[in-house]
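Margin note: ligand = pyridoxal-5'-phosphate.
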Amino acid sequence: MKANSPKEVAGQPGSSTLTAGVAGSVKPSRGSAEMRYAIRDVLQVAQQAREAGKRIIPLNIGDPLQFDFSTPVHIIEATYQAMLAGRNGYAPSSGVGEAIEAIRDDAGRQGIENIQDVFVTSGSSEAIEIALASLLNPGDNLLIPSPGYPLYEAALAKFGCEGVPYYLQESNGWQPDPDEIARSINGRTRGIVVINPNNPTGAVYSREVLSGILELVARHGLVAFSDEIYSKLVLDPIPAISLASLAPELPVVTFNGLSKAYLVPGFRIGWGILSGEGKNVADYQEAIGKMLRVRLCANHPQQFAIRPALEADQGHIPPMIEKLRRRRDLIDSLLNSIPGISCVRPQAAFYAFPRLEIAETDHEFVTDLIQETGVVVVPGSGFGQQPGTNHFRMVFLPPEETLRQALHSIGAFAKSRRSLGCRE
Ligand SMILES: Cc1ncc(COP(=O)(O)O)c(C=O)c1O
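Resulting structure:
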């Protein structure tokens, strides 16, 4: 106790003051300086626009519950019943048994074999952080898609690791190119992140591309991380192939969760599935277990929503897809009719990543767009993009009338920009 007394902290025997800091201002970590989350960072600009009297149309956050989608009642009831039944204490660190079983069965239906571990987390976000933290040492790197979901780069910065971008091919429907990925692998590369279906492009990857990526995993002794959080929201008649299903013997961590297709992003329930040859992943599995234990557990009562979500009535999904398909078709045709904007048609999820032919940066374009029109989209640079290109990401979750208004404003804004001298 004595060592922590205020006197010693202040370094002035006899003085009782706690105000004088020896070190001056508190210096944040270098890792925190790298933290960016453009999806929420734009809200500050949106707030200024609101204060200036603009009506805000938020097209930045991928939360269906902000629009005309609602949580299936049986998912809410299962959670409520779990609470009433007293499941309000800590849960096992890997998750409750019935949830783990349901996730295993669901993964089996996606063709994933050789499952060595399933762990339930606070959103798939936590599964991603734990899986990466259990693998990487400072100075290691991971190959991450560009554009891609920004959490990966932020997590890597936290761990003192590098995200090496591999560029998705806009001219090829935003598919990855395994040959380009191969060129980025070096002695410190530990794994490859695949986001399929992709956020922010909405692309669904072909079997050929996925097989090409798995060849690299095998050849270079890597771990594949496959983020499949949108796998049940495919809008076109094409399969969303689970990466792990193509290579039961290779180490793959598959991420998924309830947030998107089951309409409970606020429940914070996700999971990781570790598959591969048992003896090759045993140490890694143990490391994940340790990481899970130190953070105690994921939300307990909400875990009882997992089995009903995955196994009971799936009736909300077809109408959700139908609604999203109509909205996707609308924004696809409207975006592509705006001079200076072109968009690869998203095949899944609820995001579009249109390209801008502009003289300024996407950041400047988006900031001015929000201030002048109140339409809130996210600059493409927040997700990564090929140098020399500019994009923005928008969600197409809102009802058609709102999307029409938003795209009318974007079109008028883009036109006014071009008349001010932006290039074709
Ligand atoms: C590709 C991708 N992965 C992971 C997440 C995180 O989802 P959650 O933590 O809600 O499961 C998101 C959220 O938008 C996402 O788009």
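The first helix runs from residue 6 to 10.
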